[in-house]
């Protein structure tokens, strides 16, 4: 197991082209062409308690984030069909992307060694990035907590919490 190479503020954000829960391809470069800043967050698995809480928090904050010029995409290794069930079950309105080969996870340093219940394991590192319209990383946060993370991110971005 190796330490994933992590991104820092100012780094060029790696582009990706992944399928969403309706099997449409979504790329970072296309989102940036729309002039939006993009919040890309990586989570371990759809429909688990922590990941559900985080996805619901992003969905609840989506209007405020969009009003401030942010698009939100959540990335997991789940297949599009499971993401569709996740969206339906929890009424999610954020874009959910499938990265079963973990290419985007690894490019962002969101897959690698982590501690789980005191043991070192290899897996998805819950991480959040804010990519500016120029394609540069403005925020890079690793090992974030599922609960309370969106409120903290909004504070970090200077956006009032609802």
TrEMBL record:
Pfam families: AhpC-TSA (PF00578). SUPFAM superfamilies: Thioredoxin-like. It catalyses: a hydroperoxide + [thioredoxin]-dithiol = an alcohol + [thioredoxin]-disulfide + H2O. Keywords: Antioxidant, Disulfide bond, Oxidoreductase, Peroxidase, Redox-active center. The keyword Coiled coil does not apply. GO terms for biological process: cell redox homeostasis; cellular response to oxidative stress. GO terms for cellular component: cytoplasm. It comes from the Bacteria. It is an enzyme of class 1 (oxidoreductase). Its EC number is 1.11.1.24. Residues 7-162 form the Thioredoxin domain. One of its GO terms (molecular function) is thioredoxin peroxidase activity. Monomer. Belongs to the peroxiredoxin family. BCP/PrxQ subfamily. Thiol-specific peroxidase that catalyzes the reduction of hydrogen peroxide and organic hydroperoxides to water and alcohols, respectively. Plays a role in cell protection against oxidative stress by detoxifying peroxides and as sensor of hydrogen peroxide-mediated signaling events. PANTHER family: AHPC_TSA FAMILY PROTEIN, THIOREDOXIN-DEPENDENT PEROXIDE REDUCTASE. This is thioredoxin-dependent peroxiredoxin. The lineage of its organism: Bacteria, Bacillati, Actinomycetota, Actinomycetes, Propionibacteriales.
């Amino acid at each position: 197991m190796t330490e994933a190479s992590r991104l820092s503020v100012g780094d060029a954000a790696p582009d990706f082209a992944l399928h969403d829960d309706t099997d449409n391809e979504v790329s970072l470069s296309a989102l940036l062409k729309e002039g939006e800043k993009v919040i890309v967050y990586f989570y371990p698995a759809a429909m688990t308690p922590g990941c559900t809480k985080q996805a619901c928090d992003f969905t609840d904050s989506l209007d405020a984030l969009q009003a401030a010029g942010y698009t939100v995409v959540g990335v997991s290794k789940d297949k599009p069909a499971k993401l569709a069930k996740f969206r339906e079950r929890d009424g999610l309105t954020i874009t959910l992307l499938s990265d079963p080969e973990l290419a985007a996870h690894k490019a962002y340093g969101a897959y690698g060694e982590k501690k789980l219940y005191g043991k070192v394991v290899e897996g998805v590192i819950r991480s959040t990035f804010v990519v500016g319209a120029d394609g540069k990383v403005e925020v890079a946060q690793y090992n974030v907590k599922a609960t309370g993370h969106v409120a903290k991110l909004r504070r970090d971005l200077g956006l009032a919490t609802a």
